[in-house]
Design brief:
Chain A is 44% helix and 28% strand. Chain A has 207 residues and is an alpha+beta fold. In chain B, β9 and β10 form a beta hairpin. Chain B has one domain: 60s Ribosomal Protein L30, Chain: A (2-Layer Sandwich), CATH 3.30.1330.200. Classes of the chains: A alpha+beta (207), B alpha+beta (161).
């Protein structure tokens, strides 16, 4: 039976399950990233954020902070978005590691480097979703990635707008990836639409 | 010290002189500002979606162009603004991400800007200027002193409408 989950009144048990989904998905994504870079990648305990729209833009150190955002639509039995957000220095370091560039390079990205960032998003999203798919037995896949380098508020608002039609809050499952001595790489968000939360929890037998 | 009032996503505010209204990091959302030049009353709405009619959650009227702009105008008038003096400026409505075969949601910026202009037209409020579309974020700020709208971007400079 498919119960609808009201994200405004989500209980702590459901939050724990969502957190675990974030843990497993991001764990796989971190492993994929670590293999790609041949570096040890860590992640923090995922955060489940139920936010009013007025709060969304301030999540990543201010609405006007310039960040790189890689967005992928999530399709299949779960709908929504995946958003991977990096501050520009981290994005630069990642691209340099991946492409074997010298360390001191300017912050602007050429088109090859933009493709590399999109591909990183692609690989992270793919490994996140395939573990989620294995766990739930749901068919879930990601669309091709899009990249934007701009204000954090403007980028974070894109998945929030999908929530706007059916809710006054947005729910983000957030994972922070780090490497070395706690240097943040970026924030990985799974933002399923409202109906998909119920489906996720149902598939795991907890709703 | 002039008070700077922040308007969040799906939010609207009005203020009497002297005041500044601002909203940070507009993407596909649209910022609509109203100004009564004589009374120096300003108003700003930050809408996310074009129409409340297609949405199942429409309790927050500031979220939509159709209901948000009507409420913004009503609040301006209740602060003492003269409807005949009120003019509008709008900004935002960008498409932040480009994909091959973009879906509906990704064109939401253009639809938000169109809907905002239509609602203003229906209310008989003229749009003096706009900075909409493109693929970049915007921070906007309106001052009650002269009704000038500052539009700040990353990589596209600052302009005044």
């Amino acid at each position: 039976m498919a119960n609808d989950i009201d994200i405004n009144n989500i209980n702590s048990f459901h939050l724990d399950v969502l957190r675990e989904i974030g843990n497993i998905g991001a764990g796989n994504a971190a492993t994929a990233l670590a293999k790609m870079l041949n570096k040890k990648i860590d992640m923090k305990v995922p955060q489940i954020r139920v936010m009013k729209f007025s709060e969304v833009s301030d999540v990543l150190g201010g609405a006007e902070t310039e960040v790189a955002g890689i967005l992928l639509g999530v399709r299949g039995e779960i709908n929504g978005n995946i958003l991977f957000v990096l501050d520009l220095l981290s994005a630069r370091i990642l691209v340099n590691m991946l492409m074997g560039n010298p360390i001191n390079k300017e912050i602007a990205f050429d088109s090859m480097e933009c493709s590399a960032l999109q591909e990183i998003g692609n690989i992270l999203a793919g490994s996140y979703l395939s573990s989620l798919s294995n766990l739930t037995n749901l068919k879930i896949y990601a669309d091709i990635p899009g990249l934007a380098i701009d204000m954090a508020g403007a980028i974070l608002s894109v998945p929030a707008i999908e929530f706007g039609k059916s809710s006054d809050t947005a729910l983000y499952i957030e994972n922070e990836f780090t490497y070395g001595t706690d240097s943040v790489i970026g924030d990985f968000f799974l933002v399923p639409d409202e109906a998909s939360y119920g489906r996720l929890l149902n598939a795991l037998g907890v709703a | 010290m002039i008070e700077v009032i922040r308007v969040g996503m799906a939010d609207l505010k009005v203020a009497c002189h002297p005041a500044i209204l601002t909203t940070l990091g507009l993407g596909s959302c649209v910022g609509i500002t109203l100004y009564d030049k004589k009374k120096k009353i300003i108003g700003m709405a930050h809408i996310m979606l074009p129409s409340s009619k297609i949405a199942s959650a429409n309790t927050n009227r500031a979220k939509f162009a159709d209901t948000g702009i009507v409420d913004l105008l009503a609040e301006m008038i209740s602060l003492g603004a003269d409807r005949k003096e009120i003019v509008a400026k709008i900004a935002g409505g960008a498409q932040m991400f480009n994909f091959a075969g973009s879906n509906e949601t990704l064109k939401i910026g253009a639809r938000n800007a169109e809907a905002s202009k239509l609602v203003l037209k229906e209310l008989g409020i003229s749009v003096l200027s706009e900075d909409t579309g493109g693929n970049h974020g915007r921070t906007i700020e309106i001052s009650s002193e002269d009704g000038k709208l500052m539009v700040k971007t990353i990589g596209y400079g600052i302009k005044y409408l």
